[in-house]
Amino acid sequence: MAGVAFVVNGTRREVQASGDTPLLYVLRNDLELSGPQFGCGLSQCGACSVLVDGKEARACVLPVNRVAGKDVTTLEGLPGLWAKQRGGPADGESSLHPVQQAWIDEQVPQCGFCQNGMMIKAAELLADTPSPSIAQIKQAFMAGPSPHLCRCGSYSAIVEAVQRASTIMARRK
Amino acid sequence: MATRTERHETVSTVFGATLTRRQFVRGGGALLVCLGGLNRLGPVGSMLGSTVEAAAGDSNSLNPGLASSWFEIHADNTILMRTGKVDFGQTTAHTAYRQIVAEELRVSYESITSVVMGDTDRTPDGGFSAGFLEYGGQNLRKAAAYTYQALLDLAAATLGVEKSALTVQNGIVSGGGKRASYGDLVKNQQLKLTIPVSGELTNMFGLTVTGDPPLRPTKEYTVIGKSFPNAVTPSKVSAKEVWVTDVRLPGMLHGRVVHPKTLGSTLVSVGTLNKTRFPNAQVIVKGNLVGVVSPSEWEAVGAAQQMAADTKWTDWKGLPGHEKLYTWLREQADWKTTPPSKSDKSRGDVKPALASASKTLTASYEVPFMKHAPIGPTIAVGDARADGIVYVHTHNQNPQALRGQLAMMLGTSVDNVVIRIYAGPGHYGRSNGGNAGAEDEAVLLSKSVGKPVRVQWSRADDLQWSTQSPPGVADISVGWDANGTITAYQADHYMPAMQDDRLVGALIAGLPTQPAPAPNVEGPIGSTINGVSDPWIYERVPNVAETGFGTFQLGQQASPLAVGLRDHSMRTPGQLQQNFPRELAMSEAAARAGFDAIEFRLKQTDDARLIGVLEAVREASGWQTRVSPSPKASATGTASVSGQGVSAMLRSGTYWACVCQVSVVPSTGKITVDKYTIAVDPGIVVNPLQLKRTIEGGALMGLSHALYEEMAFDESGVISRDWRSYPILTMADVPEVKVVILSHPEVGAYGGGSEAANALAISAVAAAFFDATGKIARRLPLKPSHVQGILKA
Q1: How many whole angstroms separate alpha carbon B59 and alpha carbon B341?
Q2: CA separation for the pair B743, B750 (Å, rounded)
Q3: CATH code at A62?
Q4: Widest distance between CA atoms in chain A
Q5: Strand, coil or helix: what is B140?
C-alpha cells in the first residue's frame, strides 16, 4: 500500500491504495466522487469514464498507479473544466458544463446510469471538435476501448444533446 | 351529513370515504396530518461517505386507507405525495404522477414540492412498478379525487357556503364572495380522511384504491397534457443524485458472492482464503452460498476471484443449450401438465374456416431468451441489525414484495423488514415481482457478520445468475377470402413460465422461498400458465382461436439447487413473444393475398383508434403503398436493398403502430435500420415530452432485440458473460426515430407509454427484411449469421 498522487478536478489528491486498484474504486470509495459508475469492470460499456489529461479513459480497468501525476476529471469536475477552457472563472450563466445543461435541456436520461460516460465522451469530443457532424458524434461514441452502451436507448437524445451543447458552447465562448 | 361525535370532532362521509376533523392543533397543522412517526425519519439517503439514517425500528408501511398516507397538504400550501411505485427514469412518478395529482386537487404542478417513492415505510400502496399509468396512476388519481371532495366539504363548512357554489383554482377555494386557500383550510386542524382500498400490500399487485369518487372531467384539464421536464434529471447529470451505488453505512463491508459453477452445482469443498494476499477478507458459507466480505472493495473482488478458483463444485448438465432450444421446446418440454389458456377474443370455428379459405398461411416463429441486461449489475446494501430489524438499500421495482420475500427467507415478520429505494440502472421488469438479485445475498452476508454489507454482482454474475425473458415458439395459421378479408386466425403460443420471483441467494443457501412457478401456483403470473397477452385487434375477423401453452422453466426442476434458467417478465412481457409472430404473419399474409401490409390490416378492423395509428404511421413514415416484397427486392449480391415493414399493437390501453425502413446487404446479411416511425394513441396524453423520450428509448431497445439479442447457454448454464457475448445496440446502429403522438382525451383514461415500442420494432424490422429480400426470417435475432442461411435458401 503506497501513496499515489494525482490531480482530481483541479485539486491535488493523494490516496493510500495498492497500485493495481482500479481508479474507479479509488474515485468512488476514497475520494467520494459518485459520477463514474461501475458498469462492467471490463472496459466494455463506458459507464465509468473519466478524462485523464483530457482524454476519455475507463476507470474500471485503469490501475491507479497509471494516473500518478496526471490530471483526472470526473463528471463532478466538468463545470470547472469548462471554466478553464474558457480561460476564466466559473460560468456565471450556469454552474454546469454546457454538456450537462444540454443533457437537461434535451431530457436525455432515462435511467441515466450510463450518462456519466456519455457526458464525459461528449465533453472530450467538443473540446477537440466544437461543431461535430452527426456522423462525427456517432463515431465518437463508438471509439475507444468499446462503444458507449445505453440500455434504455437514449442514443438519439444524446446526439441531439451534443448538437445543443455545441451551440451553447459557441454562444458562451 | 356531518355528525358531531364529541365536543371537537366531526365525522362525515365523502363518496364512501370518511372524514374526521379535530380542531385542536395549534400552530401549523395540516389537512391529512401524518401520524406514525414520519417526523422521526432521517433523510432518504446521503452521498458517498456519509451516513444514511434509517427509520426507527417500529416504522411500518403507512396505512393506505388514510389519505394522509398518500398526501400531506401543509398550511403553507405545499403538498407532499407518496407512491410505492418506483420510477426507473421514465419519470412517471416524479412528473406524470404529479400532474395527475395536481389536476385532481386543482393545484399547480409546482405546489407538489415533494415526491416520496418506493420506501416500504414511507409509501402506502405497494405493487409492481409496471403499468404506471394504467394502475398506479389510477390509484393516485382516485386518492386525490377523494381528497379534493374532502377539501370542498371542509371549505363549505369553514366558509359557510354551499359546496355546490364553490370553485377551486390553483388551490384557492372561492364561493359566495369568500375565499380560502387549502393551507388556510387545514391550518390548526387535524383531519383524517379514510379512503377504501383492497388487496394485499406485499403481493405482486399491492393495494388498489376502490370506490368511485367523481373525477375531474378531462375537458377541464390544465396540468395534464403539458410537457413538464423530468424533475430528477438535473441531479443525475450533475452527480448529485444518490444512486444505489452510493449508499455507504457506518462499518459497512464490501461483499462479493462466489456463485456455483453451474445452475445446478452444489458445494464439494470451500477453497481456503489466502490470508497473506487478502488479510482483511472473511469467507462466509451458508448452504451452497459462498460469500466474501472485506472493508476494501478491491480486496473483496480479489478474494472472491481467488475463492472462485479454489472452491470445488459438483457438475450439472440439465439444459438443452441454445442451439437445441427450439427443438427441445417442441419435443421435450411438458406442455400437458399446465392447462392451456384461451384468449377472450377467441370465437367462431377456426378449423372449417381455414379449410374453406381462399388462401392460407401457416408458419412457426421463434423468440430466444433475452436478458434484461441493465448497464450496471444488481447491487444492494443489507443491514441486518442486532434488534432483528433488517434494512435493505436497493434499486427495485416492487419493494413491498421484496419485503415479504425477505421476511419469508428470514422467518420473521414483514414488520421487521424495511426496503429503501434509490436510483439505479434500469432493468425493465426484472424486479417487478420483488428482487433484482443482490438483495437477499446482501442480507444473508450482513446477518452473518453483524455489519452492513454491500453486495455488487459482477457483469458475468448479472448475465449468468439473474432471471431472463423466456423464449417463445408460436404456430400461426391465417386464412382469407378472395377479397383479402381474413376469415380465420389461429395462434398457438408456447412459452415457459415468465415470473420466477424466488430469491436466488435464498435458493442457493437452502432457505425458504415462495414456490417455483407451477400450474397450481395461485394467480395468473406466478404460475406456469401462459396467458394470451397480445390483445387481438383485428375485430372484423369472425373466427379466432388464440391459445397459450405453458411449461416449467428449463432445468429448474432437475437442478439440485432448484435454480435452472429462471425467467422473468421483461418490457412488454409475454406480449413481445406473441406480437412478433402475429404481426409478421399479418405482413406475410398481406403479401400472399396481394395487398399492401397497411391496407391489409385496415381491411380487418373498424376500430377507429387502430385505424388512426395505422394511418398516422403511414403518413409520417413515407410508407410506399404496395405489395411486398419490393419490386427491387434481392436476396443476393453486394448491393444494398431496401424494404419497409409495419406492425401494430394494443397494450395497456394504448394503440400503437410502427414502421421500420431498412437496408440489407444480401451478401453479408447485415441489416441496417434507416428509419423507425411510431404512432401512439394513449387516450389522455399526460406529458408529451416525456412520452416521446420514453418511446424513443423503447424503439431503440426494440431494435437491439431485433438485431442482436439472444442469451447463449450450454447444458450447464448461461455462457453470455459480458457485452461481447451479449451484444446490444450501439450508437452506430441508431436510425432516424420519429414519434407521432395522437391525443384522445375523450377516451378518459391514461394509456401506458413505456412498453410496446420495443416489441413492435421486431416484427416491423422482420417484415422490412422480407420486403427488401423476398425472404422471411421467423427466428430472432436477425443477425447476419441467422439470416445468411435464409438468404441463400
Answers
A1: 43
A2: 10
A3: 3.10.20.30
A4: 47
A5: helix
B723:A45 CB<8 A = yes
pLDDT at A101: 97
Interface of A with B in 104-133 (CB under 8 A): 104, 107-116, 119
- For cell 436510483, name the residue: B423
In what side-by-side order are the strands of the sheet with A11-17?
A: A11-17, A2-8, A71-73, A49-52, A55-58
> What confidence score (pLDDT) does residue B36 get?
26
B382, part of any domain = yes
- Residue A59 near residue A117 (C-beta atoms within 8 A): no
Task: Please provide the DSSP assignment of A67-86 as one string.
Answer: GTT-EEE-GGGHHHHHHHHT
Q: What value does the mean pLDDT take over residues A69-84?
A: 96
| Grid cell at residue A12 | 491535488
Nine-digit cell string for A73: 476529471
Q: How far apart are CA B637 and CA B650, in angstroms?
A: 38
Count of C-beta atoms within a 10 Å radius of residue B712: 16
Number of structural domains chain A divides into: 2
Q: Which of B237, B239, B693 sits opposite A157 (nearest CB)?
A: B693
A9 touches chain B (CB under 8 A): no
> Cα separation of B320 and B52, whole Å?
46
Low pLDDT (below 70) residues in chain B:
1-8, 22-61, 523-524
pLDDT digits (tens, 9 = 90+) for A87-140: 866 555 568 999 999 999 999 999 999 999 999 999 999 999 999 999 999 999
B170 and B292 share a domain?
no
Boundaries of domain holding A39: 2-76
What does R_g of chain A's alpha carbons equal in angstroms?
Answer: 15
B239–A152 C-beta distance less than 8 A: no
List the one residue out of B714, B701, B721 whose CA is nearest residue B761: B701
Q: Is B688 helix (H, G, I), strand (E, B) or coil?
A: helix
- Report which DSSP code applies to B231: T
**C-alpha to C-alpha distance for B364 and B476, rounded to whole angstroms:** 6
CA–CA gap between residue B379 and residue B453 (Å, rounded)? 11
Residue B154 is part of a domain; what is its CATH number? 3.30.365.10
Question: Does B126 lie in the same domain as B86?
Answer: yes
Q: Are residues A87 and A72 in the same domain?
A: no
Beta strands in A59-139 (DSSP E): 71-73
Say how far apart CA A160 and CA A122 lie, in whole Å: 11
- pLDDT recorded at residue B41: 28
Give the span between the Cα atoms of A125 and B251, in whole angstroms: 41
If asked whether residues B423 and B281 sit together in one domain, one would say yes
Residue of A nearest to B727 (CA): A149
Nearest-10 crossing angle of helices B137-159, B97-105: 30
ipTM exceeding cut-off 0.90 for this assembly = yes
Q: What is the separation of C-alpha B320 from the centre of its chain, rounded to a whole number of angstroms?
A: 29
Give pLDDT, residue B48. Answer: 34
Ramachandran bin of B167, using left for φ above 0, alpha for ψ from -120 to 50, beta for the remaining angles: beta
Query: Which of B89, B373, B729 lies closest to A109 in CB terms?
Result: B89
Kindly report the pTM of this predicted structure: 0.94
pLDDT score at A90: 57
Helix (H, G, I), strand (E, B) or coil at B665: strand
Name the residue of chain A whose CA is nearest to B233's CA: A104
pLDDT of B132:
84
Around Cβ B167, how many Cβ atoms within 10 Å?
A: 11
The candidate with the shortest Cα–Cα distance to B311, out of B288, B295, B294, is: B288
What's the confidence (pLDDT) of residue B532? Answer: 97
What count of CB pairs under 8 Å joins A to B? 180
Based on the structure, what is the number of domains in chain B?
3
State the Cα–Cα distance between residues B108 and B340, nearest whole angstrom: 50
Q: Are A53 and A71 in contact (CB under 8 A)?
A: yes
Give the CA dihedral B738, B741, B742, B746, nearest 10 degrees.
170
Residue B93, φ and ψ in degrees, nearest 5: -70, -35
